[in-house]
Task: structure prediction
Amino acid sequence: MKNLLSLPPNAVGVFHQLTGAERDTYYCTADPADHKLGSGGGTAWLLKSAHADEGANVCFDTWLAQHKRVLLHAGGQSRRLPAYAPSGKVLTPIPVFRWARGQRINQTLLDLQLPLYHDIMHKAPASLHTLIVSGDVLLRTTEALQDIPEADVVCYGLWADPVQASHHGVFLMNRQTPTQLDFMLQKPTTAQQAELMPTHLMLMDIGVWLLSDKAVKRLMQKCEAGANGGKGCTPGGHLAALPGYYDLYSDFGCALGQNPSRPDAALADLSVAILPLPGGEFYHYGTGPDMIASSVAIQNLVKDQRYILQRGVKPQTSVFTQNTLLVNRPTPATRNVWIENAYVGKGWHYGSNHIITGVPQNNWQVTLRNGVCVDFVPVGDAAYAVRPYGFTDAFRGDVASLDTMYMEQPLHSWLAARGLSANSLGGAGTDLQSAPLFPVTSDMEALGQLLNWFVSDTPDAETSALWGKLPRLSADELSAQANLPRLFEQRRTLQAQTLPLVAKNWQRSVFYQVNLKDMAAQYAANQWPLPDALPQTAPLMTRIHDAMFRAECLRPTQAAEAQAYESQAFALLRDGLTENVLRHQCTPRCTTYADQIVWARSSVRIDVAGGWTDTPPYSLIAGGNVVNLAVNLNGQPPLQVYVKPCKEPVVICRSIDLGAMERIETYEALLQYNKVGSPFSIPKAALALAGFAPGFGTEHFASLRQQLEAFGCGLEITLLAAIPAGSGLGTSSVLAATVLAALSNFCGLGWDKNEVCNRTLVLEQLLTTGGGWQDQYGGVLPGVKLLQTTAGFDQNAMARWLPDTLFTHPDTRPCHLLYYTGITRTAKHILTEIVRGMFLNNTQHLHLLNYMKQHALTVFDALQTNDLARYGRMVRATWEQNKALDAGTSPEAVETLCRRVDDLCYGYKLPGAGGGGFMYMVAKDAQAAQRIRQLLTDNPLTPNSRFVDMDVSAEGLQVSRS
Result:
C-alpha cells in the first residue's frame, strides 16, 4: 500500500524527517506554485510526480497497476485554520480519544485518517488501485464495510439532512437502482432536494472516491486537455508536464451517471457505484471552529460509563490543551479554546474562542479578548513571526475593501486604529492572504510588544512604527518560509515536560490507554525517569499495563529488570483470571464403582474468523468474537481420556500417543505442572483444579496419599491425542477440557461444559502457556458457531449456532479439505509477542484485533447465506488478517503451499496461531478439491504431509461410563 500526499510546498522536503514515515510507503509532493490545478488537476499532478520519481523505468499504465495507492489532498492554503497551514492540516495534533485504546500520545489527523482508507483498499476489488480522499476530514465507521462492487468509479457517501447536504456535493440514485449513480449535483438547494426526493435517494459526498485504472486514465486525459504545455519540477528533480485546471467533483463527478448533470461524452462509458459508508461519521477539520467542534463531538461520542477509561471524569468540555505548559487554568465559563505547542505563563489571561499555538517561552503580560487567536511561526534559525487573527476570520478579501474582515472586525477599522492604511499591506488588489501583515523578529521583548499591539483596543504609535520597520510576511509567505523542524522540536520539548505530568495524573489522564510501546520508546530515547510506582489499590488491569510498560522502557538497557517486570505483568494477569475460580474450591468425591471407567472424548476446532480476539488481555478489555467449528478427524473424536480407580492411593498417568507413564505420589510432584517438557502437565494441573492439591480443595490433608485414601482410591488417567503435536487445531486446550470433564464426572464435581471451558482457561494460566478461550469452546461445543464474550475477567462465552449446510451438503462437503503440512511449531512464541502488544496497547495490533472481531460477525452473517464462494473469500481474509498480526504465521514453506493451491481455492488458512500444523482449504468446487488432493498427494510438502478427513461434529465433548 502506497500513500501519496499533496502537501504545502514547505512541508514536502521535511515530511519524512518530521514524522519518521518510511519513504517507501509515503510519497509527498506539492502543487506547483502559481499554477491552479483544482482537485482533478491536483490528482493528476500527484500521480505524474510520483510516477516520474518512482517509476521512470516503466510506462505510466504499468506503474499505475503495480500497487494500490491512497491519494490524500492536504496542500491547500488553510486560510480558516492558519495554525496548521505551514505543515498541512493532516499533521494537526489530535487529542487521544478518552474512550479509545492504542492511540499515540502524539497522534496526528493523518494517523487517524489512514486506517479506514487502508481498510477500504484491502476490501476493494483487484481492479481498483486508486483511492482519492480529502485531507481535512476524519471519517469513522461503526459497522463493517460492505463488499465493494466492480465499477470504474466507486464513491462513498453519508445520509445527511438537506441543510447539511446543501453545502456539499450530493449523489442522486434512482430509488429503483439505489447503488447506481443517476447524476451528481454540487451544493443543491433544499428546494431542489425536496423536488427530487420522491424519485431519488441522496447521499452526501464525503470525498472518498475509488477509481479503476481506466477511470484514472480518463481523468488524466481530461486534465491534459486543459494544459498549457508548461512543465513542473517534482521533489525528485524530474520535469513533468503540468496538467490543466480540472475539478474532480464539479467537472468529473457531474459528468458521471446514467443521466449526468454535466454530460461529457469522453466519460459516458465509465460505470459508477455509490455506497453508503456503514455507520459512517463525518468530522470536519477545515476551520478552527470545526476543529474544536469535531474534537468535542468525538470525545463525547461514547457515553456508556463502562467504556470511559478514566473514572470520575466529566464530559469533555470545548477546552483542549496539548503539549502545553499552562499556568492559568480555564474557568467553568471558558468555551472553545485550543492551546497546543505553547508556553502560556502566569501573565497570560484569556476567555473563550481562542486558538493559541506555537508560543515560545516568554514572560509576557497578555490579555486576549474573546475571539482572538495567536500563532507564532519560527522563521530562520532564531526568529519568529507573530500571527494574531480572529476565531472566525476567513483570510479572504481585498485589503482595500470595506467588507474585508480581520481580527473579527473590518480590516480598515483595525488598520485605522493603528495609523495604518491598505497601502501598508500592498494596496488595492492585494488579497488579505497575500498581504505582508505579520512581523518577524528574534527579539523576544519586541514579540511580546507586537502581540499586545495586534490585540489591543488602544494600540500605541511606537509599536506601529516598529511594525513598519520590521520585515513582514504574508500568510502565504509564512507557510512557505516556516522553519518546520524548529516548530516540531518545540512540540517535542514541551511533550517531554508534560508527559510526566500525564503519568502522575494517571487516574484522570489517558496515560495507560495510549500506545504504551510508543510511549516506552519515548521514555527510553529521552532517558526520562520512570513514573512513580502505582499503589496496590490501582485497578488490576492498570497495574498489568504499568508492569509491561516498565518492561518495555527497560528492555533496551536493563534486560534482567525488564524480564522481571514482564513476568510480573503475566503473573497479575494470571491472578485476575484464576481468582474467581480458585475462590470456589472443590470437594472431590469418588462416584464410580471399583471396576468402572469414565471415558471422555472430544472433537478439535477449526477457527475461521476472529481468532486472537479471545486472548487475554484483549478479550478482557473488549470482549471477543470467534467463529469456529468442532470437527472429528477420520470419523473419530481425536482426543480421548480414560479415568479409572487405582487400588493404590497414587495417581498414575499414561499417554498412549507419547508412550509415556508417570507415577505421582506426593503433592510436590503433583504441583510440578508447569515443569517444562513434562508430558503430564495437563492432568496434574487438572487434578489440582479438581481439589487434589493444597489451596485448591475445601479439605486439608497432610499428604496426597492421605487425601486419596480418604477419597477411596487412587486414579489412573490415560490420554490419547490421535493428532500430531503443533497441529493448530487447539489440541492442548481441548485435551485439557476433556481431562477436566472426565475428572468432573469421576469426582462428582458437576461441571457443565461452560464451567469446564472456563476452568480450562484457568488451567492454561497455571501452566503459564496462556492462550484464549476459543480452542476449548470450539472443540467442546458441537457444530458451527459464533462464540462471544464481553469485557471483564469473567470470560464465559455465549454460543450462537449456525447452519452446517455448507459443510454437510453433498455438493459442498467435498470442498472442505484439511491437510497436515508436516511443519511443527509452537504457538507460545507467537502468543507471547502478540499478547505483549495487547498489554502495551499497540496501535497496529489493536486496530487489527478490532477489525478481526468485526470480521467474525460478517462471517457469521455469510454462513447463514450458504454461499460457498463468499464464505471462502472470508476465510482468505481471515488468513490475511492473521499474517498482518504476525508475519511468523506464514513461513516460506507455507507460502509455497499457498501458491500451489491458490487458483483452486476460494480461501485457506492455518488454524490457530499458524506457523505450521494443518491447513484448512475451501476449494472452489468438488473437481478443484480433487485436483488439490491429487497435486499434494503426488508432490507432498514434507515427508509427513497428508490429507485427513474432517467432518463437523454434532456432539463435541462427550463423557460416558462403562
Q: What stands out?
A: Residues 83 and 375 are 6 Å apart (CA to CA). The chain is about 35% helix and 20% strand.
